[in-house]
Amino acid sequence: MSIEDRKKDHVLISIDEDVESDIPAMFQDVYFVHDAVPEINLEDVELKTEFLGHELSAPVIVAGMTGGHPLAKKINAVIAEAVEELKLGMGVGSQRAALLNPSLDGTFSVVREKAPTAFIIGNIGASQVAMGLSEKEVERLIDMVRADALAIHLNPLQEAVQLEGEPFYRGFLNKAREVIESCEVPVIAKETGAGISKEAAEKIVKTGFSAIDVGGLGGTSFSKIEYYRAVNNKEKELAAISKTFGNWGIPTVLSILEVRTVTNIPLIATGGIRSGIDIAKALRLGADLVAVGRPVIQAAYKEGSLGVKRYLERLIKELRITLFLVGAKNITELRKKPIVLSLRIIEWAKQRKLKIPI
Q: For the chain, how long is the longest CA-to-CA vector?
């Protein structure tokens, strides 16, 4: 199967099938303490955020998901229009397809055409880095979308269960260090749904990455996406294996705690963010930014740019109301407000010797 067809599969399956993890991101195990007398007005709440030197109107971006196919170009275009209007940001899916076939560049570069001032994150896979990525190829990735940052996505699980997978990670950190040293923009280590542990975070920081996207368990499961692809291709054994690992990983809430225990590196929380309350909880636990994936791509496919804009505006309104209800005028104040964590979180933190931000 061509890489273009694979990208189309990923988009359509993520829109049409049940590919959400059965294990939640655990935001339901984090509780804010309601303030009945917040002593601020809702309009006083300020959400402006700076991340890697770029100012956003709110601490929200769209996760990098797609590219490499005409359908992906349409989806990237409508998402880009929305984030430009809202003064937010977005990532693109892996740009490997365009490295292999330059005619696909436009499926990625359209984001900068439609979003000339938004925060844009390029994307390439860890396996491609491990196998060798030239300085010229790194420059192409950046120039293609005029990226403000480059994400190297960490997807060992997906590579291990994918029909065309390339689970090659030997020597990755040394190769990643070379990419970071040659790259003109900050480089982000980005998991894609299985989370990042404190041990992995320490390796990432030592390698020189500028930020971490925890990409925790609780949202879209790429193992489940690969399950449907295997079924469609009559690969019964691979389908069974993909199903086995459909809930593998560290839930997003726990992954934030894991990373924050060992480093203060800029942190994006992705994985199961489905409301403004979830966003506020992620920020309170230590995230600097959150990224939303599958619901945005569904809105883009079904309702175009207006649907994406409405969905993101709803999340931002919910976030603003959450801060109001705990009496926080901004994100800095939010991080000082009391929270209560469930015993499930406390027990994980105890066994893993994590810092608890309460």
A: 61
Q: What is the four-CA torsion angle of 122, 257, 10, 89, rounded to 10 degrees?
A: -40
Provide the pLDDT confidence category of residue 36 given band limits of 50, 70 and 90: very high
SS3 199: helix
| pTM of full prediction above 0.85 | yes
Per-residue model confidence as pLDDT tens digits over 54-82: 999 999 999 998 998 899 999 999 999 99
Buried b (16+ CB within 10 A) or exposed e, 233-260: eebeebbebbbebbbbbbbbbbbbbbbb
Contact residues for 28 (Cβ-Cβ < 8 A; gap 6+): none
**The two three-digit tokens of residue 91, written as one number:** 């990532």
Name the DSSP class of 270: E
Residue 179 burial by Cβ neighbours in a 10 Å radius (0-12, 13-18, 19+): buried
CATH number for 3-352 (one of 3.40.50.1000, 3.30.230.70, 3.20.20.70, 3.90.1170.50): it is 3.20.20.70
Q: How far apart are CA 317 and CA 152, in angstroms?
A: 31
Closest CA to 160 of 99, 94, 246, 97: 246
Non-local CB neighbours of 267 within 8 Å, separated by 6+ positions: 211, 212, 213, 214, 256, 259, 260, 286, 287, 288, 289
Query: For residue 36, which amino acid is it?
Result: A
Whether the CB-CB separation of 74 and 107 falls below 8 Å is answered with no
Say which amino acid occupies 105. Answer: D
The pLDDT of 47-53, averaged and rounded, is: 98
- pLDDT of residue 247 exceeding 90, the answer is yes
Q: Quick check: helix, strand or coil at residue 126?
A: helix
Domain boundaries, the chain: 3-352
In this model, does residue 51 exceed pLDDT 90?
yes
Specify the range with the lowest mean pLDDT, choosing from 36-40, 67-71, 125-129.
67-71
Pair 126, 169: CB distance under 8 Å:
yes
Helices (H), the chain: 3-16, 70-86, 96-100, 106-114, 126-131, 135-145, 156-161, 172-182, 198-207, 222-232, 236-244, 252-262, 276-285, 294-326, 331-334, 343-352
What are the angstrom distances between the C-alpha of 203 and each of 140, 200, 223? 27, 5, 24
